[in-house]
TrEMBL record:
Domain of life: Eukaryota
Cleavable signal peptide: none
UniProt cross-references to Pfam families, sorted A to Z: adh_short
GO molecular function: oxidoreductase activity
Record keywords: Oxidoreductase
Gene3D superfamilies listed in its UniProt record: NAD(P)-binding Rossmann-like Domain (3.40.50.720)
Source taxonomy: Eukaryota, Fungi, Dikarya, Basidiomycota, Agaricomycotina
Identification of the protein by name: NAD(P)-binding protein
Length: 307
């Protein structure tokens, strides 16, 4: 486990010879926001940074905190996208593919904490599973050509999902969409496993790219301490053990920068955990992949009343 000071020193050594393009999905709050801010700080603002989310005012605050760049090509922007719906993601990624020359770093951290039962979007996808898995699958699938362009130019080309490697569970091939037996615990175990299997599939097809699944641990974000009444009586206790978003962001960037290629599973201090508590066979991996593709195509085909 590297000390925080060592992690900061390693991150500070990041000085690419190329001009970096980074996309942060879920970068308006919590871990995503702190990671985007840290990335901007280490690049001294000299990067093209895209923050994708729903809250423009929050994004404006984040961007205002970035260092003022000295490179003419530097650009910091917000792209609005309600990532609950697959069709919104498809429209957003199509627009990004048209105007971005490449993506060096694609960081995915949208999250939702709820204890109620299955809560579907208008497209028929559970909101929690959607944010933690299907939305991320869709972003990676659609934007991978831009990540590939970065690698073909001899640059860093990395995708990172901030979720929970080592905290998943067995695959239920009879109910991959969790429409028959949904509950809070099962949904929480499914998304990390699906993410592992998704990134294994991508890494198998793109062995020269980097795919990182990283666990942030308990972090003092609004998602934990403001979003659910059940946590409020425990706030003081939780805060005593929780990492600040700023410190967490250092470890997230460390895991991102340290992974050169292939699939990497990392813990809250950026250490590679290998196959620790890994679930899913090769057959299950491909079944989950095909299910994901079919489920998203089904969601996109759903007709939604414009009203």
């Amino acid at each position: 486990m590297p000390a925080l000071a060592a992690v900061r020193a390693a991150n500070a050594a990041f000085s690419p010879a190329y001009f970096p393009v980074a996309v942060f999905v879920g970068g308006t709050s919590g871990i995503g926001r702190a990671t985007a801010e840290a990335f901007a700080r280490y690049t001294k603002g000299n990067a093209h940074i895209v923050i994708v989310g729903r809250n423009k005012s929050a994004a404006d605050e984040v961007i205002a905190s970035f260092p003022k760049p000295t490179e003419p090509a530097a650009k910091h922007e917000f792209v609005h996208c309600d990532v609950f719906l697959m069709r919104n993601i498809q429209a957003t990624t199509a627009a990004l593919r048209e105007r971005l020359p490449k993506i060096n770093f694609l960081v995915l951290s949208p999250g939702l904490l709820k204890f109620r039962g299955r809560d579907e979007t208008a497209e028929g996808i559970d909101k929690r599973l959607g944010l933690h898995y299907y939305a991320r699958w869709k972003f990676v699938y659609d934007l991978l050509p831009l990540v590939r362009k970065a690698k073909d130019a001899g640059e860093d080309a990395k995708v990172m999902s901030v979720l929970a490697p080592g905290h998943g569970g067995p695959v239920n091939l009879d109910d991959l969409a969790m429409k028959k037996s949904y509950n809070f615990a099962k949904a929480g175990l499914a998304s990390p496993t699906y993410t592992d299997l998704m990134f294994e599939h991508y890494a198998k097809e793109n062995p020269d790219l980097a795919f990182i699944h990283i666990y942030p641990g308990l972090v003092a974000t609004p998602l934990i301490f403001a979003s659910h009444w059940a946590f409020r009586p425990l706030n003081y206790l939780l805060k005593a053990f929780a990492t600040t978003p700023e410190d967490c962001a250092e470890y997230m960037l460390y895991g991102l920068f340290q992974t050169e290629k292939g699939f990497s599973r990392r813990n809250q201090t950026g250490d590679d955990i290998g196959d620790y508590r890994h679930y899913g066979s090769e057959e299950e991996r491909e079944r989950v992949w095909e299910h994901s593709k079919e489920e998203i195509e089904r969601a996109l085909a759903v007709k939604i009343d414009a009203a």
